[in-house]
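JOB MANIFEST
job_type = single_chain_structure
chain_count = 1
residues = 405
[input]
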Amino acid sequence: MPTHAWDEELDGLLRRIGSRFTRVEPRRLVRDYIHGLLGQVGRKNGWQIAEYAGHATPDGLQRLLSRTCWNADDIRDDLQAYVAQRLGAEGGVLIIDDTGFVKKGLTSAGVQRQYSGTAGRTENCQIGVFAAYATIRGHALVDRELYLPKSWTDDRPRCRAAKIPEERTFATKGELARTVITRALASPLPITWVTADAAYGQDSHFRRFLEDRGLSYVVAVPKSQPANGPRIDHLFSQAPPQAWQRLSAGHGAKGERYYDWAAAHLPLADEPDGDIPTRRRWVLARRSIAKPDDIAYYLACTPLEATIADLVRIAGCRWKIEECFQAAKNECGLDHYEVRRYIGWMRHITLAMLAHAFLAVMAGEERKKGAPNGTRPSSWTSHQPRSVVSWQLDPATVPSAPGTS
């Protein structure tokens, strides 16, 4: 794509957020900061971004993140409006996940020794709960919250030293996820589906929250998850062989990501006030082709007309937030910050998300020739005697009825 198209798009985005700054100086500083986040800068910290922008020292950029008067949540709202306008589409998927930021010392807001999925082990780190938005047009991060362990929220002097707002009390990652979903629903983003990993999916309060708001979902759960009585892994151990179908979970770096999938209906979801049910609950399993013992499990709640292909597509969308994290960290310095206070974290993360959204939009422009359409196989139902579920059979294994061809 011609360079001038990138320049015009970025200028338009910067004008969109410009009204959030009452003075010219911070508008110029935020422009320099975002240009630095997008530029060929090895380590996107204050000094290197300042040098890239031609500043003698990083003092101005440090003031932008710490003392200048502006609200990162206002920029977050602009980001969501921008993503809705440029990437929004019917059937949009909101993806919830958290990521870790390894840090030294004890003064960075929210830092403590805790498990980081990013590192794959317990580390001294901060944890952020994020939401990404995905459609066929592209995907980008759209919201964030910093997780504050009880070791922080129970120590108010420590919180005040890190400039954590007084109203921030302890909230679980699941509660933070509900907060970002509530904000996303109030934004212009067109959202139909939600997906998340097992840390969120196993929480019945999280699933009920989604159902109460009319959202469809496909969420991962552990193998010990009860599913209408039995454990979900025990339930799938009884699946007939013809219940397994080979389907793609979407296009990956090495081509289509094929797995064997099985799904079954659970009883219809109850509706408020005894209305006629319009949604159906499912169980879903994804089995590795190369390692058949490697099975992932999901619970879902969907419109009645949804098929197994829909569930597979939404389950596959969860990887898009990992792609967002990787791109935002590698290309936009999401984890390159050197701020310690809460306000600095929120500001840097929000501006890095904005830079990443710009790249996502430009990548979408380059894909405008269209994305390949996924297959949508028919959903066949087999009523198994004494089964608590209704297995969805692979149409290729279902014999034709007498008199048909």
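[summary]
The mean pLDDT is 89.
The longest helix spans residues 342-366.
exit_status = 0
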